[in-house]
Amino acid sequence: EVQLVESGGGLVQPGGSLRLSCAASGYTFSNYNMNWVRQAPGKGLEWISFVSSSSSTVYYADSVKGRFTVSRDNAKNSLYLQMNSLRDEDTAVYYCARAVTPDYWGQGTLVTVSS
Amino acid sequence: EIVMTQSPATLSVSPGERATLSCRASQSVSNNLAWYQQKPGQGPRLLIYGASTRATGIPARFSGSGSGTEFTLTISSLQSEDFAVYYCQQYNNWPPLTFGGGTKVEIK
């Protein structure tokens, strides 16, 4: 069974940093591209980052470019999102999702940016 | 950036009735369009990709149609478990991947 489990969310002050993790299991992680998608409270879905299966290609939404860094460790079946210079508007549930048309999503981890 | 617009924002339907949800793209996305279902507290679930292909395990009451800029998700006979929020997403011209604002299907 495919599972994606995010962790690392929490409360952080504006300007702070957090590192999210996504642990994948039930499939060959290294064969799949991965994405991070977020959802602000009561709002819709916003794509924020993509990393190819080999890490050779990464993309970011303009809203996070220069502040967030996506990475993966295929040996550990893990995806990461390093978030720096956090802003109030980054408050959201962050999902990791498999593939460009995500067929599997995690349950999400909540990031709250507030003073 | 391709903007995806969904209508209506809220759809009130009785169980057993048909629901028709619309998604419009600001420019052609060919048939590179997916639909997702999201229930409270859960991650989205892929329903349809390629505008009309049901994902694995998705019941036949869900169907997708359209191409170019106009798309439709139809739920032929609403079951209790179908009341949720539905999102469309284009993957024809990216980055960025873009989602519609969602349609909430609620019990009438």
Give the uncertain stretches of chain A in residue-range form.
Answer: none
What percent of the residues of chain A sit in helical stretches (DSSP H or I)? under 10%
Distance between the termini of chain B: 36 Å
Oligomer: heterodimer
Word description of this protein:
The complex is a heterodimer of chains A (115) and B (108). With 115 residues, chain A is mainly beta. Chain A has strands spanning 3-7, 10-12, 18-25, 34-39, 45-51, 58-60, 68-73, 78-83, 92-98, 104-105, 109-113. In chain A, the strands form 2 sheets. In chain A, strands 2, 4, 5, 6, 9, 10 and 11 form a 7-stranded mixed β-sheet that branches. The mean pLDDT of chain A is 97. Chain B is mainly beta and 108 residues long. Chain B starts with a strand and ends with a strand. In chain B, the strands form 2 sheets. In chain B, strands 2, 4, 5, 6, 9, 10 and 11 form a 7-stranded mixed β-sheet that branches. In chain B, strands 1-3-8-7 form a 4-stranded antiparallel β-sheet, with no helix packed on it. Chain B has no helices and 11 strands.
Relevant terms:
heterodimer; A: 115 residues; mainly beta; 7-stranded mixed β-sheet; 4-stranded antiparallel β-sheet; 11 strands; 0% helix; globular; B: 108 residues
Helix-strand layout with pairing:
The complex is a heterodimer of chains A (115) and B (108).
Chain A: E1 3-7, E2 10-12, E3 18-25, E4 34-39, E5 45-51, E6 58-60, E7 68-73, E8 78-83, E9 92-98, E10 104-105, E11 109-113
Parallel strand pairs in A: 2-11
Antiparallel strand pairs in A: 1-3, 3-8, 4-5, 4-9, 5-6, 7-8, 9-10, 9-11
Chain B: E1 4-7, E2 10-13, E3 19-25, E4 33-38, E5 45-49, E6 53-54, E7 62-67, E8 70-75, E9 85-90, E10 98-99, E11 103-107
Parallel strand pairs in B: 2-11
Antiparallel strand pairs in B: 1-3, 3-8, 4-5, 4-9, 5-6, 7-8, 9-10, 9-11
